[in-house]
Amino acid sequence: MSAVLASRLDPGAITVIKGNKPLSRRYSRKHWAVLYTSEPEYIEVALDDLSGWRKLEIPPLTMLTFRHESLNEWQSHPFRFVCQERKGILPEGVKA
Q1: pTM score, whole prediction
Q2: Quick check: 64 and 15 in contact, CB under 8 A?
Q3: Which strands form 33-37's sheet, in the order they lie side by side?
Q4: Tens-place pLDDT, residues 16-36
């Protein structure tokens, strides 16, 4: 899982969770923006060599929090994803 989260309770913050799925990110202090997509080609086409954008490499299982007033100063935290089985679905090989 990878995800980007925002909250109406704190509209100045964006949380990016980099799990085990692709997530390409760029940020720009000049444009006060963070871009993200599952495929890096989408960002490359959208930016079309526009200057001022930097790649943001995030290792898997990391959570970042950005604040709009200081995009270049983000908080990084380890993220642990615990897979849980859905109710009503038995694991393979288990009989009811």
Answers
A1: 0.60
A2: yes
A3: 33-37, 24-28, 54-55
A4: 888 877 788 887 878 777 788
